[in-house]
Amino acid sequence: MFGAPSHRLPAQIYATARVLDLRVACMYLPDVLLLSFEDSTTTTSTVRFIRQTSALDLGKLQDAYDLYWEVIHDRIGVSDASTLLDNLMCDRPIYGGWRMLVIGGLCSSAICSVSFAGSLVDSLMVFPLGALLVAVQMASVKNDLYSNVFEYVLRSLSGFQVLK
Fold it and tell me: According to the model, what pLDDT value does residue 127 have?
């Protein structure tokens, strides 16, 4: 809901299940999370489908991760975290549209210069492309067709490695 990296969802669910002493199996497909809760006493399982379109809200993403961290380390209970998460979902976004575009451009420029040894000119050229990427991601939330295509493109791009 807030833009968490989809490749980390199963690992975080398994970590949470270990802390809560649950037997869970999960599988993530674009926009659908399949969860199977196993009951060892009755040897049955319950399957749940969670459908959520991709979105991006960096402020709420950090707050949701902080809640996850608190639950994993037994600092707060599940019921308290559930209430806080409900409140977080109802709150207004922390960062508006223009701030998100600027943050996307700045992140792209920083990644260009730090990770790929880009020059100042490269970083300046990458800024509008990063802002465009965030704009497309924000626009794709409103249309399911574009959302699935955008998610597929991001997944395929994340698999590339730079060879030297």
Answer: 95
SS3 string, the chain, reads CCCCCHHHHHHHHHHHHHHCCCEEEEEEECCEEEEEEEECCCCEEEEEEEECCCCCCHHHHHHHHHHHHHHHCCCCCHHHHHHHHHHHHHCCCCCCHHHHHHHHHHHHHHHHHHHCCCCHHHHHHHHHHHHHHHHHHHHHCCCHHHHHHHHHHHHHHHCCCCCC
pTM over 0.70: no
76 plus 18 within the same structural domain: yes
1 is a domain residue: no
At 157 the pLDDT is 55
Asked whether residue 25 falls in the same domain as residue 85, the answer is: yes
- Residue at 149 is within a domain: yes
139 has pLDDT over 90: no
Is it the case that residue 106 has pLDDT exceeding 90? yes
Specify the number of domains making up the chain.
2
Residue 86 shares a structural domain with residue 104 = no
